[in-house]
Amino acid sequence: MVRIPILRMGDCLLVTIQVDMQDQTAMALQEDLSDRIAATGARGVLIDISALEIVDSFVGRMLASISGIARILDATTVVVGMQPAVAITLVELGLSLEGVRTALNVELGMELLRRARLEGSLGR
Amino acid sequence: MVRIPILRMGDCLLVTIQVDMQDQTAMALQEDLSDRIAATGARGVLIDISALEIVDSFVGRMLASISGIARILDATTVVVGMQPAVAITLVELGLSLEGVRTALNVELGMELLRRARLEGSLGR
């Protein structure tokens, strides 16, 4: 089974999805990511999907689910690099990725996380 | 054919290798990476191979070749995340990855790039 590597950068974790997600890969990623968030105290998770040409309902649910788990562990998830054609298809399929934040690329995603954290700390 | 995504972070490019490299994938990565270094003016390239359980002479040559191309384009390459077992096998095979810089993980690799740049700018 393919295990997707999770890279740590400061207080963020970065995951680049390059392979078609199967059930097992997705489950392993969820587990690994939860463990790493807990172990490192990461506050942000960036998931790069620029290599994906198709995002079906399975991947959509996985992204939403990872985002939900991370939120409970006090980390914000940003999905980055979605191809425009993928966004079009998602909307046509009625998959709106609710609760999932997005950014055009890793840099903008990091900026979003930084701002979210600032606002969070000010708001509390 | 699988195209490996190249992520930009500041003046670094990050590549996570997750799939077994075939000739075509390796050639495409070399081309894409050279184009991106030229287009972005990146000064550093981080190649994460933590997902690879085997690094054979083909991958070893590819890493050395990418490192050489990047150097000509004035960028430093750091290979990060190599599994200890891979390092052992490489040495046993007599592949010393000459000319390729390495670091334990992405964070240390970035630190290495930052220091290399400082020294470079002081030394000139």
TrEMBL record, chains A, B:
<protein>
    <submittedName>
        <fullName>STAS domain-containing protein</fullName>
    </submittedName>
</protein>
<dbReference type="Pfam" id="PF01740">
    <property type="entry name" value="STAS"/>
</dbReference>
<dbReference type="InterPro" id="IPR002645">
    <property type="entry name" value="STAS_dom"/>
</dbReference>
<dbReference type="InterPro" id="IPR051932">
    <property type="entry name" value="Bact_StressResp_Reg"/>
</dbReference>
<dbReference type="InterPro" id="IPR036513">
    <property type="entry name" value="STAS_dom_sf"/>
</dbReference>
<feature type="domain" description="STAS">
    <location>
        <begin position="2"/>
        <end position="113"/>
    </location>
</feature>
